[in-house]
Amino acid sequence: MDPKERVKDLREKINYHNYRYYVLDQPEISDYEYDMLMRELIELEEKYPELKTPDSPSQRVGGEPLKEFEPFIHVVPMLSLANAFSEGELRDFDRRVREAVGDVEYVVELKIDGLSVELIYENGIFTVGSTRGDGIVGENVTQNLKTIKSIPLRLKDDVSLVVRGEVFMPRTSFEKLNEEREKLGESLFANPRNAAAGSLRQLDPKVTAKRDLDIFIFNLQKIEGRKFKTHIETLEFLKEQGFKVIPIHKKCSNIDEVMKEIEEIRNLRGKLPYDIDGAVVKVNDLEKREILGQTAKDPRWAVAFKYPAERKKTKVLDIIVQVGRTGALTPTAILEPVTISGSVVSRATLHNEDYIKEKDIRIGDTVIVQKAGEIIPEVVEVVKEERTGQEREFVMPDRCPECGALAVRLPGEAIRRCTGLNCPAQLLRGIIHFASKDAMDIEGLGPAIINQLLSKDLIHNIADLYYLKYEDLIQLERMGDKSVKNLLNAIEESKARDLDRLLFGLGINLIGSKAAQVIAEHFKTMDNIAKAKFEDFIQLPDIGPKMARSIVSFFAEKQNVETIEKLKKAGVNMKKLSKEKVSNIFEEKIFVLTGALGNYTREEATRMIEERGGKVTNSVSKKTDYVLVGKDPGSKLKKAQELGIKIIDEKQFEEMLKGENI
Questions:
Q1: pTM above 0.85, yes or no
Q2: Rounded CA gap, 288 and 293, in Å?
Q3: Which part of the chain is CATH 3.40.50.10190?
Q4: How far apart are CA 211 and CA 196, in angstroms?
């Protein structure tokens, strides 16, 4: 078949199956068959670039990262809705509407808890998508919206229109995303709405493409060449064009029917696979909408009914402490099971020991519980009048419940943290950090391999890495003979890293690479660091009281000292290496780094400058001598240009290192 015809055929098939799968939820082919169609399309478009078009399904995988989002003025202002919180307020809305236009029909819809966007189509092709912003100006997030498979890139008809929809993240996808982030020691999203907003505003569309976002279209904002009488007609038309329209929308003859439907939706709330925070009531007749008009902030023909957070009374049976991936100790209330918003709640986060003291929560208390953001259960208040005198005060442990290590709360911080290097709760994150480029730089030892080593019980701490054998690694998935030998070589090479790299790799709370350099330079050996006191550290430049307490607490923990001893026995360097003398070519020169460098991390470039007598600062000023610019530089470049500071790229920097072009 002619390549042009085959590309057209593939696009039609993929668009059809996208619609069946993502809009109708009725797939006709397997994931494998779908992937094969997409692969063939991508290969043909790569071979024949002239056949690639903006509406091709291949454009959903995510393009190149953006420097920033461009502002975009909405075709139709994206107004917010006035809120109603009671039946009385809804009836007031109905009275005002009927006084203006007489009897009306309403449409009641789900109010999806997500991020509102505008989609623009020209002659049936998706051209621009933007966030709401302030309602007048939003951000152009077209590339990211193209990764959402339920958004059609081409409509059934060659029609020009503007629609408004709500981007959201299904609950199962939200839970999966947070599980992955927890494994990597990253901060968790509070609820699906925050996760959806954060995902849609990623500067790298490839990240957005992995986040499993979805959308419901709920309004036709503008259309050329067609007329409709009612809102219901527009939704039916949009569905025919390939949009995934709001799934529950019911026509009601009067406000009593509206109230009944709102109650029906309230009962569905916990059973839906996505979050809603209310129901939207709209006038169905489009001409009457025009008559009603709008205020400066919101339309007079619609109102959002917000459900209050559901609260229930229950009892605190116990308070346990859980240890997170970063070593944070979090108290959790074990509750007498109670149903809230459609799901059974048997535990609730208590955040930290200050939260417990502030609310005076005790074991045995009767408490009021609600779901924060409709997802995370939390204790709102204690019903103190129901106390019997049998309640017990909770005391935060000073030892980690997972590994028994000292749990330290630094002055000014709310969180108590485990100091154990081998704590099972934070071991994965700790080893990932230890092997990272700015620490021990063990090439090939990524999260997937580390996960396998832990799950197969091959390692229990960072020191065990240096005792791995060929027969241990060859049994891992995707590890052939060459990969195993390369990894063993990388582990062996890492033994020679300098003391500051090892110290940074230990992951001591608050001790970054710069602080590790200062400490290693002063104390020279790991033994000296381990024996040093708080007063010794506090005298060093850039080492504050919190950092000093953190490092002293770390070396006071027996398991940490034993692990370091095991590293020493494996042959890992424990001394500050005496480097070959380098020239002072950058003596008294001040550098600022901006953008991503290709051949060095920012820490490596900083180290090279400082070794040659230079200094690296964070902000550009008249005192700055050079601004080293990488990919996607920020505002520092503009400031340097305004001040006439010398700007160098990576190639020029490497020439300077050789003593050229200083």
A1: no
A2: 9
A3: 590-657
A4: 8
Distance CA 54, CA 122 (A): 12
Q: Determine the pLDDT at residue 374.
A: 52
Model confidence pLDDT, tens digit, residues 15-50: 887 777 656 657 777 766 776 787 788 888 888 888
- Judged on CB neighbours under 10 Å (0-12, 13-18, 19+), 458 is middle
Quick one: which of 482, 478, 449 has its CA closest to 465?
A: 449
Residue 364 is encoded by which pair of tokens? 């045995």
Average pLDDT rounded to a whole number, residues 520-547 = 94
* Fold classification of 3-61 (topology level): Helix Hairpins (1.10.287)
Q: Angle at CA 122, nearest 5°, toward 157 and 211?
A: 90
Among 220, 216, 218, 239, residue whose Cα is nearest residue 286? 220
Q: Edge-to-edge strand order for the sheet containing 276-283?
A: 83-84, 302-306, 276-283, 106-112, 249-252
Left (φ > 0), alpha (ψ -120 to 50) or beta: where does 468 sit?
A: beta
The DSSP code for 398 is S
Name the CA dihedral angle for 244, 247, 250, 255, rounded to a multiple of 10 degrees.
-110
Looking at 269-400, list the stretches that DSSP marks H as alpha helix, in order from N- to C-terminal side: 286-292, 353-359
CATH 3.40.50.10950 fits 83-306, yes or no: no
How many helices (H) and strands (E) the chain has is answered by 24, 24
What tens digit of pLDDT does each residue of 154-180 get?
A: 999 999 999 999 999 998 998 888 888
CATH 2.40.50.140 holds for 311-393: yes
Q: Which residue has the tokens 């346990």?
A: 320
- Alpha carbon distance 586, 646 (integer Å): 14
Runs of H (alpha helix) within 460-525: 470-473, 481-494, 499-505, 513-523
Identity at 367, one-letter amino acid code: V
Alpha-carbon distance values, 580 to 338, 503, 587, 612, 662 (Å): 68, 21, 17, 11, 21
DSSP state of 20: I
The answer to whether 540 and 592 have CB atoms below 8 angstroms apart is: no
Q: What whole-number percentage of the chain has pLDDT above 70? A: 94
Per-residue pLDDT for 146 more than 80?
yes
**CA separation for the pair 394, 363 (Å, rounded):** 7
Contact between 51 and 4 (Cβ < 8 Å) = yes
Token pair 């890139």 is found at 153
User: In this predicted structure, what is the pLDDT of residue 67?
Assistant: 58
The total of other beta-carbon atoms located within 10 Å of residue 514's CB is 16
CATH topology (fold) of 418-569: DNA polymerase; domain 1 (1.10.150)
Residues with a catalytic annotation lie at 111
| pLDDT value at residue 600 | 81
HSE (side-chain half, CA atoms, 13 Å) at 91? 6
How far apart, in whole angstroms, are the C-alpha atoms of residue 516 and residue 556?
A: 18
- Name which of 589, 583, 575, 594 is nearest 641 in CA terms: 594
* Count of all residues that appear for the chain in the document: 662
pLDDT for 343 beyond 90:
no
Q: Determine the average pLDDT of the residues in 607-635.
A: 87
- Please give the CATH superfamily to which domain 590-657 belongs: BRCT domain (3.40.50.10190)
In sequence order, what are the residues at sequence separation of 6 or more whose Cβ sits closer than 8 angstroms to the Cβ of residue 414?
Answer: 351, 352, 353, 354
Paired residues of 470 in beta bridges: none
520-553: b (≥16 Cβ within 10 Å) or e: bebbeebebbbebeeebbeebeebeeebbbbbbb
